[in-house]
Amino acid sequence: MSFQNTLAYAQAQDQADPLRTFRDQFHIPQQNGQDTVYLCGNSLGLQPKAARAAVEAEMTKWAELGVEGHFTGDSPWFTYHATLAAPTARVVGAKPEEVVVMNQLTVNLHLMLVSFYRPQGPRYKILTEAGAFPSDQYALESQVKFHGFDPEDAIIEVAPRAGEHTLRTEDILRTIQENADSLALVMMGGINYYTGQVFDMAAITQAAHAAGAVCGFDLAHAAGNVVLHLHDWDVDFAVWCTYKYLNSGPGGTSGVFVHERHAQNPDLPRFAGWWGHDQSVRFQMKKGFIPMPGAEGWQLSNSQILPMAVHKASLELFDQAGMDNLRAKSEQLTAYLEFLINGLQQPKEALEVITPAEPSARGCQLSLLVHQNGRQLFDTLMANGFILDWREPNVIRVAPTPLYNTFEDVYRFGQFLAAHFQR
Ligand SMILES: *Cc1c(COP(=O)(O)O)cnc(C)c1O
Questions:
Q1: Residue 409 lies in domain
Q2: Which of 54, 133, 194, 398 has the most CB atoms in a 10 Å sphere around its CB?
Q3: Are 61 and 169 in the same domain?
């Protein structure tokens, strides 16, 4: 690729971008009356303009129909979640019956662990990544304790080698093999939130299964960011939030994948609720839980229509754009960002990209390790209209997303950094 560090080049790339019109479908946060350079879709995706009308339609339905909204109108609330299954399945590479949208991410992770972390005899350990997102760490820790084990003993963490920032796939696979006799579960992020590293989910799943363990992923940073093939990779379960790359609003709803071989198995232990019960007899209100076939059988409560309306509006954009097209643009945008950073006139001791250079091992995000005055640089960027995020102790995460970011956004960020390091 022959990138150029000029505004004219960046603007020409934007004009040639087949996805360029999608930016107009989003509200871009403003600073001093101008569009900010929003590079924070990894933390909270921007609001699709269609979201407000989608919520208002449900508010109107509620105002006009009251309880009747459950069974009448365009998308009756009784089956609202089901309308999200097909577009969700397209985002994560699943069959529609293998996914369900419900609850929030950490709740869903616990529900999945209840079903899929089933320690038996000597097989009770969980393998995960060192430095996982804290909620994942706490979920695993508390589940292990719930089963009467000591987290220190029962949780195996794979860490980067000395002097390295990311995990080597060979180290993950070897650790799985070495612990084959004691592993009950392999559970990690699909993308590490801190470094932006994409894990080789297909290879990890295969190794986990070969070791006799179950395998699941937290896809908070992967869903809507990279192309996933959960069904074909044979993943057992996965969970994700919808407010990061999926642009479905703060604290929005969450998605769950359960591979069909489990989804049809009513004997799996699970924490049940009435919304997971066989729909045809749900309102008979009788004893004896009969799960819905598929991932829907893990539902607890009736659907959260307002956040789901936002999610539905957002998923329509993903369908229009297509994950493969989004990913193609994303690789270009992130490679351009990398090109500009590599061209900065400053030593590695000042600033270093810790995200893998290999495109298949990263999504949108580059994590910049800033060794000196990182917080100051971050604050200066924010004050000048660049919206990014800061992760202690010294990382700035920069995530150009293909739906609403431009090459010009990335160029402007590069210019600002270059000026900063020349001072
Ligand atoms: C963002 C994120 C979460 C957040 O969990 P919530 O239940 O949505 O608050 C959890 N895990 C990972 C890996 C994340 O990136």
A1: 7-42+323-421
A2: 398
A3: yes
> Among 321, 331, 316, 339, which Cα is nearest to 418's?
339
Token pair 């709740």 is found at 107
Cis peptide before 393 (omega within 30 of 0): yes
> Quick check: is 48 in a domain?
no
| CA atoms of 108 and 43, how far apart (whole Å) | 19
For every one of its 423 residues, what pLDDT tens digit does the chain have, with 9 covering 90 and above? Answer: 689 999 999 999 999 999 999 999 999 999 999 999 999 999 999 999 999 999 999 999 999 999 999 999 889 999 999 999 999 999 999 999 999 999 999 999 999 999 999 999 999 999 999 999 999 999 999 999 999 999 999 999 999 999 999 999 999 999 999 999 999 999 999 999 999 999 999 999 999 999 999 999 999 999 999 999 999 999 999 999 999 999 999 999 999 999 999 987 877 899 999 999 998 888 888 889 999 999 999 999 999 999 999 999 999 999 999 999 999 999 999 999 999 999 987 777 788 999 999 999 999 999 999 988 899 999 999 999 999 999 999 999 999 999 999 999 999 999 999 998 886
DSSP 126-180: EEEETT--HHHHHHHHHHHHHTT--HHHHEEEE-PPTT-SS--HHHHHHHHHHTT
Residue whose tokens read 């992760």? 391
Burial of 129 (0-12, 13-18, 19+ CB in 10 A): buried
- Dist CA 385 CA 408 (whole Å): 14
CATH code at 379?
Answer: 3.90.1150.10
Q: How far is the CA of 2 from the centre of ligand 1 (A)?
A: 37
What type of residue is 85? Answer: A
My answer on whether 227 and 333 are in the same domain is no
For ligand 1, the distance from its centroid to the CA atom of residue 220, given in whole angstroms, is 6
Q: Is residue 333 part of a domain?
A: yes
CATH number for the domain that contains residue 307 = 3.40.640.10
Dist. CA 356–CA 245, nearest whole Å: 19
Predicted TM-score (pTM) of the model is 0.97
Q: Tell me the best of 135, 136, 195, 226 to mutate to test the pocket of ligand 1, counting ligand atoms within 8 Å of each CB and taking the most.
A: 135
In the three-class reduction of DSSP (H, G, I as helix; E, B as strand; rest coil), residue 419 is classed as helix
Q: Which residues contact 201 (CB under 8 A, 6 or more apart)?
A: 190, 217, 228, 233, 235
